[in-house]
Amino acid sequence: MSYARFLSSITRFMRRSEIRELLKLTEKGEIISLAGGLPDPKVFPIDDVSKASVKVLSEEGEKALQYAPTKGVGRYREELAKFIRRTRGFEVDPENIVVTTGSQQALDMIARVFIDPGDSIVVEEPTYLAALNAFRPARPRFVGVPVDDEGMKVEVLEEKLKELKREGVKPKFVYTIPIAQNPSGVTMSLERRKRLLELAEEYDFLVVEDDVYGLLVYRDDVDTTPLKAMDKHDRVIYVSSFSKILSPGFRLGHIIAPSELVNYFELCKQSMDLHTPAITQYITLELIRSGAIERNLMGIRSVYSEKLKIMLEAIEETFPKTVWYSRPVGGMFVWVKLNANIDTAELLKKAIKRGVAYVPGKAFYHDYSGVDTMRLNFTYPPKDKLRKAIEILGGLIKEEVFS
Ligand SMILES: Cc1ncc(COP(=O)(O)O)c(C=O)c1O
Predict the structure, then answer these.
(1) Does domain 12-43+294-401 have CATH number 3.90.1150.10?
(2) HSE on the CB side for 346, CA within 13 Å?
(3) What is the DSSP letter of 121?
(4) What is the pLDDT of residues 140-192, one digit of tens each?
């Protein structure tokens, strides 16, 4: 029996994440996966987590294993506010933080709180595919703005805003990942960040800032000031998480917003999962307080920057010169544009046969364009395999480009 007739329209607009499908495939056999967005498990601070867990359970076990407030554990939010001030340079009242189950939940909440069918929202081209998948069921009209080496092209955004204005349309929000973007790896220039905020005021829209890679920048000469730190008019809704700097398994994220909106996010979360597990909040509170997270972050940056270097050198040596690729200053990904009439989704089948997986780029475009692009993760594979994977891929691309 088919159950299609029972499904809601929301369910019909849900899309399977191509990455998750691919990850299933790469679990089998000897495939080197450049596909997922997985941290290197060697950088997980297992001893620190173990000590913090024992401490939490022995000293505060009764609270840590109990139900918690929807907004999150109060003491955790206070410690988080201090962590954000130290590491991201802006003041936040703990009352303006809602703890979420990964930042993915924050994106889902944003869709529910803001988007009615047909509402315009602006996304980068390309952008984080699971954000697109979180927004899609709300059936927005996507307005795409391309990114280049300096992040979102705000001059194109301005043109699009003018066009929309002529139609009498105001976008609800612009979704951006300004620092070490997923998937392109690029970072928005400070000038563009400032201009984006000016445009938000001029054209009256909100900015959803996804800062999950804000602390994963591997060079000292890059300005990583978040939009939220420059937000004079309370237009920025800030989303981040501990997935990339502690553990994705903790599923610990947060959303920071003006009080009126916090209220709606809280309402929304109540029916989603009541609250994010208290135990991970207590353990992370202890890890922040003891300085373990900031200490470990130095190690993560050094491992990832070395891996990034290996990947970029291998691409330079083995990919055809006609291929464009990003030169990230941080994050987890290098973005590749083959500049050829090649569908990377088709190419993937051949790559998997040779033992390498990546994510075809079109899933990162709201309109599934970008067929000749691909995203390569450099954080997960061990260094020797990273080099080998790029050599295999480079060989395959050369064959295809010159055939
Ligand atoms: C840009 C971006 N935002 C959000 C997320 C969601 O991460 P999490 O739910 O683990 O915090 C990811 C994960 O890859 C990401 O790359």
Answers:
(1) yes
(2) 7
(3) E
(4) 999 999 999 999 999 999 999 999 999 999 999 999 999 999 999 999 999 99
User: Domain 47-290 falls in which CATH fold?
Assistant: Aspartate Aminotransferase; domain 2 (3.40.640)
Specify the ligand 1 atom closest to the Cα of 107.
4
Nearest CA to ligand 1 atom 16: 182
Closest-lying ligand 1 atom to the alpha carbon of residue 253: 11
Q: How far, in Å, from the CA of 250 to the mean position of ligand 1?
A: 13
Q: Where are the domains of the chain?
A: 12-43+294-401, 47-290
Residue with tokens 């080496």: 149
What distances in angstroms separate CA 284 from CA 65, 66, 220, 275, 360, one per listed residue?
14, 16, 26, 16, 35
For ligand 1, say whether the CB of 280 is within 6 Å of any of its atoms.
no
DSSP notation for 170-239? --SEEEE--SS-TTT-----HHHHHHHHHHHHHHT-EEEEE-TTTT-B--TTS----GGGG-TTS-EEEE
Cβ neighbourhood burial of 149 (10 Å; 0-12, 13-18, 19+): exposed
Evaluate if residue 19 carries a pLDDT over 80: no
Q: Rounded to an integer, what distance in angstroms lies between the CA atom of residue 2 and that of residue 24?
A: 25
- For ligand 1, whether the C-beta of 102 sits within 6 Å is yes
Q: Give distance in angstroms: CA of 366 to centre of ligand 1.
A: 17
Residue 103 CA to ligand 1 center (angstroms) comes to 6
Report the C-alpha gap between 324 and 150 in whole angstroms: 15
Residue 177 CB–ligand 1 contact under 6 Å: yes
pTM metric for this prediction = 0.95
Whether ligand 1 lies within 6 angstroms of the CB of 210 is answered as yes
